Amino acid sequence: MSCVRKENTQVNCLTKFENLRDINFVKELKENYISLLSSSYGPKSSLKLIRNSAGSDFLTSSSSTLLEQLSFSNPCFKFINALISAQNKTYGVNGLFTGLICSSLLLRALTLEVELSHRVIREASEYIQSALLKKLQKDLPQISFKVNIDKLDEVLCSVRSLITSKSYYIFSSKEIEHICIKIVEAFLKTLPIEGYDDFGQVNILDIEGIPAMQSKTFDGFLIRVYDSSLEDINRHIKSFSCNDIKLAIFTVPLSPEVPKTTLIEQNSNMSIKFAYISDIFKNLSDMLHKRNVKLILCQMFIHDCLKFDLEKNGFLVLDRLGTLLTDSLIKSTGCSPISSLSDVDCNFDSHIGVASALKAVTFNDKLYVNFLPKDPVQDVSLILPAVNNHVFKYLKECVNTGVFVLRELIKDPVVVPGAGCFEAFITMTLLQMRTENLTKIADIYHTTQSSINMIFCEYIETFLYLSMLPTNGNRRSSQDFFIDDESFHLWKVVSANPNCKSFTQPVTEIRDVCSCGGILKSQLSAEPHFYSILDIKNYCRSKSENPELDKFKINFLPIKGKKNFVLKIQGNSIVDPFAAKLNSIRLAFDGFSELFRLGLLVYDT
Question: Strand, helix or coil at 522?
Fold first, then answer.
């Protein structure tokens, strides 16, 4: 690495130049960045103590929180982070999966350049990537399942798979199941009604002190009431005789300062300020009365004197709504918020919204107003336990992602096995592709079969490692994992045998169901073969000039000649949306190809 200082009339900026193939970069990529991503992946991910740039310490196991709180100066890592964010923004899931594939392939390709030319690695990789993506789409019936949105158990399975894919041990399995049911309930309530295309909104509230089993959904929105009693709220609501309750939403604090030029006696400070505020808002209050507005909502706070004056004049006043709830109410009511008191005279009617009903609700000794919009779009509020900020952020992320994924499944209901089985299927598919295409690819790119085999093995080992992460975490042990030669799913032995050195495992020692729960051992033939991941990994690492390609006596028959396995959602099956998974792999391949072409990283510090 070299540094050069650029002189500027205002600042001195240190620009760094770093070779992508420098040993220090490769070491940082392997030991820091990939280690960070892999230790945050799946239900076995570990908690991390983070100290951010502001000096705050907090524990987290969330990958999104890590990427938000940690600053990466290296542009290569920033690029991969952008891929992760793009995947999550588009599909809601598999962002970390994208980052792990991209960074792992980059590390392996950079390491492989010691033995092979850059051109051979790049061109052979592009061929393998294209062939694999086509084969996955072609062989989709072999590995996929269509979710029926009308069946609750299948919808619940999709949400449960999402929540259990994250690491959090504060909730029991019974509590997780209850939260999953509430997420599905919130999703179903937001489905568009006949004649409308838009989904409703899910407004998430946190309440301290409630157990997870008391998580609950409410139609419409819940607005917290801070300084009024249940009797006062009910009295206001009872006075609203009409069905359509008109409202105005403010996004500015209604608490003006008394001008410094105003002389105020100490003993009459409150009365003078009250008179000043009442005078400022008199015109606004008159306009609200003329249009029969009954409800005033404010994103920020309203001065006590003004609130008292407005309530005395018959308005129901609710303030301190916060940004998210205010934005949801604006979207739901369709009214334009009042963001400046000086502009309301122009077109005040556009600032008027309508609610169909209001109701006072108490939950866990806290008072709320249940707001039901006039628009027939189905909105819902979901109350979740808030043990601490980290737990609530985790649950909120699960809810938003779960609802997003379920809405995507309406468009494309195809799912694939989770818990490493899909990655195991890709591993065996790559082994099959290598056996069938080794000579052809070597002839196309004018290189040896051994070179192409080495490149194939890097891809095989990448997906092999990813197949174990969900169930094995970041541990290196892989002797108790096997892949069958018929369904290409991942299996674990009943009890790991540290002295087991056999290439295949007896059927009797394999668990009755695969890792994802979608294939039963009874669905396999009478004599299936189970191949040790440890042996597959060791074979991939052997890069001899004449590899024994027949060592793997795997049933490499065409898919159409194999037994047709039907993936079943049963019990605690774990699945992933196929569209999201495929896009994640495609995005990772594109990102790797772009980064591998780089020669020099240039960035300012």
Answer: helix
Cβ atoms of 473 and 489 within 8 Å: the answer is no
Q: Are residues 371 and 230 in the same domain?
A: yes
Distance CA 483, CA 498 (A): 18
> Which one, of 403, 389, 420, 419, lies nearest residue 92 by Cα?
403
- Please name the residues in contact with 526: beta carbons below 8 A apart, sequence gap of 6 or more: none
pLDDT at 130: 94
| C-alpha–C-alpha distance, residues 143 and 137, integer Å | 10
- Indicate if the alpha-carbon torsion angle 40, 429, 419, 491 is positive or negative: negative
CA atoms of 124 and 539, how far apart (whole Å): 20
- In a domain, residue 259? The reply is yes
pLDDT in tens, 461-476: 899 889 888 765 555 5
Q: At residue 505, what is the residue type?
A: Q
pLDDT of residue 132: 93
> Residue 382's beta-bridge partner residues?
204, 217
Give a yes or no: residue 555 inside a domain: yes
Query: Containing domain of residue 81, as a range?
Result: 17-144+417-604
Q: What is the bridge-based pairing of β-strands 575-577 and 490-492?
A: unpaired
| CA dist., res. 539 & res. 444, Å (int) | 25
447 and 573 share a domain? yes
User: What three-state secondary structure class fits 123?
Assistant: helix
CATH of the domain at 240: 3.50.7.10
How far apart CA 33 and CA 36 sit, in angstroms, is 5
Residues 291-303 have a mean pLDDT of 86
Domain count across the chain: 2
* 575 neighbors 415 (Cβ within 8 angstroms): yes
* Contact (CB, 8 A) for 47 and 59: yes
Q: What is the pLDDT of residue 350?
A: 78
Token look-up 């979608």 returns: 518
Distances (CA, A) of 25 to 28, 205, 575, 594: 5, 44, 36, 17
Both 452 and 561 in a single domain? Answer: yes
Calpha distance 360→356 (Å, rounded): 14
Which pair of tokens denotes residue 344? 């309301």
Phi then psi for 520, rounded to 5 degrees?
Answer: -95, 150
Return d(Cα 447, Cα 212) in angstroms, integer.
60
Share of the chain above pLDDT 70, in %: 74
Among 45-59, 127-141, 287-301, name the one with the lowest average pLDDT.
45-59
**Is 202 part of any domain?**
no
Task: Phi first, then psi: give them for residue 553, nearest 5 degrees.
Answer: -85, 65
- Cα–Cα distance, 256 to 301 (Å, whole number): 11
